[in-house]
Each structure stands twice: as structure tokens, then as C-alpha cells.
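Sequence in, structure out.
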Amino acid sequence: MEATDKTTNQDKKRKHFSFLYVLGGGFLKEDFFTRHTRMIVLVVILIFFFIGNRYTCSRENRKRSYKEETKRNRPFAAGVEGCPV
């Protein structure tokens, strides 16, 4: 009886390391993933929000630096256009 239990445990361990087992999605049926599906989905959604916020902030920083740079260069541009300084 114990010998068959050992072989089934070894077969399960082999499945975990099999490339086809992972590629076929068998690891998603494991107890850990089925119990923590909601938490995994929540973490993925939070990661998407974090990445989106990062890109939004960097775009706003670029706009702000562009506006500041154009403010600094306006007197020079006015002199080039022929307006008296």
C-alpha cells in the first residue's frame, strides 16, 4: 500500500516539472491557484493600474518641462522674430 502511495507522489512531482504539464495549463488546476484565484486577479489589476499611472505621470512631467522650457526661450524667440526687446 505504501509503495503505491510513494509512486503516486512521485508521479505528481514529475507532473510539476514537466514542460507539457506547464504548457498545457495543468498547474492552474493546482490547489494553490484555485484557492487564491481572486487574490491573483486583484494583484494583476493593481499592477495594470500602477503601470498606467506611471505612464500618465511621466507624460504630465514631460508636458510640464516642455512648457517651462518654452517659457524660458520666449524672450530669445521674440528677438529673433524682429520684435524689440
